[in-house]
Design brief:
Largest sheet: 8 strands, parallel, barrel
Radius of gyration: 28 Å
CATH superfamily of the largest domain: Aldolase class I
Structural class: alpha/beta
CATH class of the largest domain: Alpha Beta
CATH architecture of the largest domain: Alpha-Beta Barrel
Number of strands: 16
Number of helices: 18
CATH topology of the largest domain: TIM Barrel
Number of domains: 3
Oligomer: single chain
Strand content: 15-25%
């Protein structure tokens, strides 16, 4: 069985905009263990206090499948191996396995370290040997191996021989700069296999968009360990994406990787995105929300008959799901699929279907987009079907933004007047911006009637200019994502006035939350 080695907590943490606390790293490690990866690289204990704390905490965290690995460099040239602080920190982490990286490329030895090539070989050998003498298993990361091999193959191979002779049980070939092509990987792996008596691994970076391809080619050549990160996060352009590698191995190459735990993949992908505080890549293969989403009418019609027509694997195998997008590209089949998801059965020739199609196409021609705003679409659909009663009516709103030159920040205040039943409610609120103030004022007016609105949070707010050639008169589309303790939903608004567009999306967000009461009979009927 192949070895899946995850370095999200070390190499992935070096990505721009990513910062894990020690507690975050423990939680991610638990998710990776549930996924079933064999090795989790926890960090570099000699580099920062956060990683030292992680290794202390993880010792008290039971893991079922995974082994935690400490990562660090060979000793410094000026230090004896027994007194090198980095080597000692690796031992203090008390992991059974240590991944040690050393210089393979002569350029790095002479220019980065400023030492002789022979001295580097000595450092590799005694660093590995010292860790082995302390009863640690050692994986040796041959940093910049492919660049080193292309520059001086004899020296690159000699660095590997020294590591193996000193006791390394795995040699991981690293494409650290991410500039190697798959055909080069194939040929170089063939040579190294004939020279190296221990199993090989592959560690690829994605600077040429080749990290996944290079990893798969290396495995095809007999490499047994593949290293990468969840969602491909990492320094510069990222690392090899395990969320693509693992399903490709298991589903395409028929190489056992995770077994049935593959169905946890999307959940783990989302968890890491959330903990890293990154925006999810909806177009990511296998685990992205759009990976099995269908928009074109021809596609939808075919997929409803047989999913294999436009889906290369069953989405559930990786924990994903099929989605039918509603847009002016979708035909009646896709629209009916969405309508039925809300518990309403209609014949494809029903007049309401034609009416809804016409409304949908008209709205999208005006700039509305319902792919990321299914909350607004459900409201649109229910209004067209005559099954929705508005929870409130807007009588008016006003937003004031004030900036005083002797103060550092601007102030925003919103006033709204709404009608609930026969009662008119007038409320005002301040906010950190005009939309935030409008949101606060609307909630303030409605929460006495609908206490459940206290659960709702505005999670994301996006504005897109639709007709930039008109400058500040351009029409804009506002997409809002809202959520409560159990659900998330998107809503949309379009107008030449950004506050009007924001109001439309905010009002739909509130209406969608209150729609839960209307949905219950439909779901029960189903």
């Amino acid at each position: 069985m192949l070895e899946i080695y995850d370095t999200t907590l070390r190499d992935g943490a070096q990505a721009e905009d990513v910062s894990f606390s020690a507690e975050d790293k423990v939680r991610v490690a638990q998710q990776l263990d549930e996924l079933g990866v064999q090795f989790i690289e926890g960090g570099w204990p000699g580099a920062n206090p956060k990683d030292i704390e992680f290794f202390r905490m993880i010792k008290e965290t039971p893991l079922r499948y995974a082994t935690v690995v400490a990562f660090g460099s060979t000793r410094k040239a000026s230090n004896a191996v027994q007194k090198d602080p980095n080597i000692q920190a690796l031992l203090d982490a008390e992991t059974k396995i240590i991944t040690l990286f050393g210089k393979t490329w002569s350029l790095h030895v002479t220019d980065a370290l400023g030492i002789a090539l022979a001295k580097n070989l000595e450092i590799i050998g005694d660093s590995v040997a010292h860790l082995r003498s302390k009863n640690r298993r050692v994986f040796y990361d041959a940093e910049h191996f492919f660049d080193g091999y292309k520059t001086d193959p004899d020296y690159a191979l000699e660095t590997v021989r020294r590591a193996v002779a000193a006791g390394a049980e795995r040699v991981i070939l690293c494409d650290t700069n991410g500039g190697t092509m798959p055909w080069e990987i194939k040929e170089i792996c063939r040579v190294v296999q004939s020279e190296c008596p221990v199993p090989l691994g592959i560690h690829a970076h994605n600077d040429c968009e080749m990290a996944v391809a290079n990893s798969l080619v290396a495995i095809e050549m007999g490499v047994v360990q593949v290293q990468g990160t969840i969602n491909g996060i990492g320094e510069r352009c990222g690392n090899a994406n395990l969320c693509s590698i693992i399903p490709n191995l298991q589903l395409k190459m028929k190489r056992p990787a995770l077994g049935e735990r593959l169905s946890h993949l999307k959940k783990v992908s989302g968890f890491v995105t959330e903990i890293a505080n990154l925006m999810p890549n909806k177009h990511q293969p296998y685990v992205g929300d759009s990976a099995f989403a269908h928009k074109g009418g021809v596609h939808i019609h075919a997929v409803l008959k047989n999913p294999a027509t436009y889906e290369h694997v069953v989405p559930a195998l990786v924990g994903n799901r099929q989605r039918m997008l509603v847009s002016d590209y979708a035909g009646r089949s896709g629209l009916l699929e969405k309508v039925e998801a809300f518990g309403i059965k209609l014949d494809k020739d029903h007049a309401k279907v034609q009416e809804l199609m016409a409304t949908l196409k008209e709205r999208e021609s005006e700039g509305y987009q319902f792919e990321g705003a299914e909350g607004s679409f459900e409201l649109l659909m229910r209004k067209a079907m005559g099954t929705h009663t508005p929870s409130f009516q807007l009588l008016g709103f006003r937003v004031i933004v004030e900036k005083k030159y002797d103060h550092g920040v601007s102030m925003s205040e919103a006033t709204v007047m709404v009608k609930v039943g026969e009662t008119v409610e007038h409320a005002a609120a301040a906010g950190s911006g005009p939309v935030n103030a409008l949101d606060h004022a609307l909630r303030k007016a409605l929460e006495k009637f609908y206490p459940e609105l206290r659960e709702v949070k505005l999670l994301d707010y996006k504005v897109r200019v639709l007709s930039a050639n008109r400058g500040t008169e351009s029409k804009v589309r506002v997409l809002i994502e809202s959520g409560d303790h159990k659900d998330k939903w998107g809503t949309v608004g379009v107008s030449e006035n950004i506050m009007e567009a924001s109001w439309q999306a905010l009002a739909d967000s509130i209406e969608y939350k209150l729609l839960a009461r209307d949905r219950l009979p439909d779901k029960a009927a189903r």
